[in-house]
Amino acid sequence: PDLLYVNPNVTHITCYGDSSGNISLIISGGISPYMVDWGSADTNNIIAGFYNYLVTDSNGCYISDSVEILQEDQILFNVNTEDIQCYGDSTGFIELNLQLNSGFPPYQFNWTGPNLYNSNSEDIYNLFSGVYYLVITDANLCNVDTSIELIQPVNIPQINNLETSDYNGYDISCNGENDGWISLNITGGYGPFSYIWTNLAT
User: Fold this and answer.
1) Which of the ends of the chain has fewer CB neighbours closer than 10 A, N or C?
2) In Å, what is the CA distance from 65 to each residue of 6, 15, 99, 129?
3) Which residues does residue 71 pair with via DSSP β-bridges, in sequence order?
4) What is the model's pTM?
5) What is the average pLDDT across 95-104?
6) Do 34 and 55 meet the contact criterion of CB atoms below 8 Å apart?
7) Strand-strand pairing, 117-119 and 130-137
8) What is the 8-class DSSP label of residue 180?
């Protein structure tokens, strides 16, 4: 009989971590029917890796080999964030850095967040506090999702208690004198504080 020959027909995995691989064997030569032994492996919907097979024909001739199922690289990225500086402000941002050989570019970005926020940009700025959700999709339609929270300081109201000099109802004791004064007592907020008066005094 002709030499026993096996040609594997392989479907590799498009998205990292999926179990969408498939192997079928095209067998020729030898004497049919053939017996195929994959051990304990199921060759449908398999994950990435090596799979060993043994093909035996009706005369007991056999051939053994292995097949590798490959997968695309994982979509990996780093995140750089800036939290909100003052309560109620929109000074936060989130920047992404896609790692080299990550997924299959180009990528699409879908951001959603507080106050019906949405964006398709890679990096997003002028953000309020809250949780921002991201879905990254590559050219193979593989996707990865994550959520990032930006925080803000606690709202502590600032109260300014102002006291001025009082000379029997006058701010200055005598005409031409410069003995008036203003005392400012601030509570709340986040110290230390800076002061700028209209006369540019600090």
Assistant:
1) C
2) 9, 26, 35, 57
3) 13
4) 0.72
5) 93
6) yes
7) unpaired
8) -
pLDDT of residue 149: 98
Give residue 123's Cα distance to chain centre: 11
- In this model, does residue 200 exceed pLDDT 70? no
d(CA 15, CA 146): 17
- CB within 8 A of 172, min separation 6: which ones? 165, 178, 179, 180
Three-state DSSP at 48 gives coil
Take residue 65 and report the two structure tokens written for it.
């080999």
Give percent of the chain above pLDDT 90.
69
> Residue 106 corresponds to which tokens in the numbers above?
């180009």
pLDDT band at 182 (very low <50, low <70, confident <90, very high): confident
Identify whether the C-beta of residue 72 lies closer than 8 Å to the C-beta of residue 104: yes
Q: Is the preceding omega at residue 157 within 30 degrees of 0, hence cis?
A: no
